[in-house]
Design goal:
Number of strands: 15
Helix content: 25-40%
Structural class: alpha/beta
Shape: globular
Largest sheet: 7 strands, mixed
Length: about 325
């Protein structure tokens, strides 16, 4: 089969498009003919060799896929050949075929296309884990989403709104602002401003009042994290999702004490490995909201697998609004 292969870690140009051995499903596993796979920021870390979980080389990267079941291993009963599925995988999605554990295969709604299916993988699951599992968000709460036009941020905006929040979306351009406004944001604040520390808090307070933000879903880190912390309400919660901006922030514990603030970490892939039923329940809710028209992934672009360098550079350079997807089949 054709696949993107990591022989040596390095920049995205170090990936090789070539032939890789066809996978075979074992007991409890499913062989999927991959139609689409989305590119996530962690995929770049895997290629570069800086991710926390790296398989033995050579290997095929990629964590999100949609496709059609081609064959099933012994004991598999929840899916059958011909079923259209979304699947979660630690690595192996950037190929024409992949093997996935049965418990991590989820039947797609009939109206969902493969590009949408791939785009509704890791990002929407991460958003669900942050909002529902970690933060226990309640309807009516004010929620600030940073990096709101990126993959996870966009999913957070849509899902928080669908679950009844007042959503404040933080973005860095007018193009991104227009996108999040059209997809559920009640208020938009900008991070591309002078004196972010002071001006960001003023924007937020002008939007929701000086009570501040009940829940921050923080995807950026660095100065944006620092500024977001200053917008929080008494007894507010901040979920640490990622550090797309680069700098990992440090926090003065005294500030947390004075305002009764909770900092909550999220490692989304742990749910897949430790509590797969939680993942299944999340997908059931996400797909139901999709069918109700309350969630819709934004696929900015689809690229054939051969154009992987261009597609990955879009993610690396933070030029993506929503998601970019690689297509393996017409």
């Amino acid at each position: 089969m054709k696949a993107l292969i990591v022989y040596e870690h390095g920049p995205v140009e170090s990936l090789a498009l070539g032939e890789f051995a066809d996978p075979k499903p074992g007991k409890g596993e499913v062989l999927v003919h991959v139609h689409a796979a989305s590119i996530n920021f962690p995929d770049l870390l895997v290629v570069g060799g800086t991710y926390q979980n790296l398989p033995k080389r050579p290997f095929v990267p990629g964590k999100d896929l949609s496709g059609v079941v081609g064959a099933v291993g012994e004991g598999v009963s929840s899916v059958k050949p011909g079923d259209r599925i979304v699947a979660q995988i630690e690595h192996g999605a950037f190929a024409e075929q992949a093997v996935v554990r049965e418990v991590l295969c989820f039947k797609m709604p009939a109206t969902m296309g493969h590009a949408e299916g791939a785009a509704m993988g890791l990002t929407y699951l991460t958003a669900h884990n942050a909002i529902v599992e970690r933060a226990h968000m309640q309807p009516g709460e004010t929620v600030l989403v940073t990096g709101a036009a990126g993959g996870v941020g966009f999913a957070c905006v849509q899902l928080a709104k669908a679950l009844g929040a007042v959503v404040v979306a933080a973005v860095s351009s007018e193009e991104k602002a227009a996108l999040v406004r059209a997809n559920g944001a009640d208020h938009v604040v900008r991070t591309d401003v002078p004196d972010l520390r002071e001006s960001f808090r003023k924007q937020v307070f002008d939007a929701v009042g000086k009570k501040g933000i009940d829940l921050v879903l923080e995807n950026v880190g660095g100065d944006v994290f620092d500024a977001s912390l200053r917008t929080m309400a008494w007894c507010g919660r901040l979920v640490i999702i990622g550090f797309a901006g680069g700098r990992i922030p440090e926090v003065k514990a005294g500030y947390l004490l004075v305002k009764n603030i909770s900092l909550i970490g999220l490692q989304s892939s742990d749910y897949r490995e430790r509590t797969p039923q939680v993942v299944r329940d999340a997908y059931n809710q996400l797909f139901a909201l999709y069918e109700e028209g309350k969630l819709k992934p934004h696929v900015m672009a689809e690229y054939p697998m051969a154009d992987y360098v261009k597609a990955m550079h879009m993610v690396q350079d933070r030029k993506v609004l929503g998601k970019v997807v690689l297509t393996m089949r017409v």
